[in-house]
């Protein structure tokens, strides 16, 4: 999960509540099929209230996707920070990614993949995750928890490729695993391959 910088925008209490409701709705049902009218009906608000959050449906969707990944990143990093042993840190990272993705429906992830601005947010998060996995593997190798011959770059690229396939739905289609389950399996596979 990426550490993306977000502009500090001060929301009113109602705007923050609306944003959170919108996040829940879009995670559950995706966003491509909604119009602004649909969203105002579902959320019980005016268009003006929605336009205070973003200038268009596309910008609104992109901001919600960024919010989702920002919250996911915070969750993931807080889980990693609780672990000290390198093996546990790597497992915590990939397991926390799985947990963070649980609320995201296949419709949401398909819409993220289909819309270029949100696809870029996903790509940036995957790139960050690749770098983060590499860091965690190097940390474990340095401390003697992982095999000396582990190529952190290669393993992190394999993780990245798998994360991309999870995000596009290819893994679910091929295996029947949910995205969250696939991340759990990935964590087990990686640790089994590199630990001493």
Any overview of this molecule?
The chain has 196 residues and is an all-alpha fold. It has a domain at 65-194: Tetracycline Repressor, domain 2 (Orthogonal Bundle). Helix content is 74%, strand content 0%. The protein has helices at residues 13-29, 36-43, 47-51, 57-81, 86-101, 106-114, 116-142, 152-168, 170-175, 179-194. Helix 4 packs parallel to helix 7 (116-142). The longest helix has 27 residues, at 116-142. The chain is elongated and about 60 Å long. 33% of the residues are buried. The model is unreliable at 2-8 (pLDDT under 50).
Ends apart, CA distance between termini: 26 Å
What is the C-level CATH assignment of the domain at 65-194? Mainly Alpha
Assembly state of the chains shown? single chain
In the CATH hierarchy, the architecture of the domain at 65-194 is: Orthogonal Bundle
According to CATH, the homologous superfamily of the domain at 65-194 is Tetracycline Repressor, domain 2
Structural class: mainly alpha
How would the global form be characterised? Answer: elongated
List keywords for this structure.
elongated; Tetracycline Repressor, domain 2; mainly alpha; 196 residues; disordered N terminus
Per-chain topology:
Blueprint: H1 13-29, H2 36-43, H3 47-51, H4 57-81, H5 86-101, H6 106-114, H7 116-142, H8 152-168, H9 170-175, H10 179-194
Helix pairs in contact: 1-4, 1-6, 4-5, 4-7, 5-7, 5-10, 6-7, 7-8, 8-10
DNA-binding region: 35-54
Domain HTH tetR-type: 12-72
Keywords: DNA-binding, Transcription, Transcription regulation
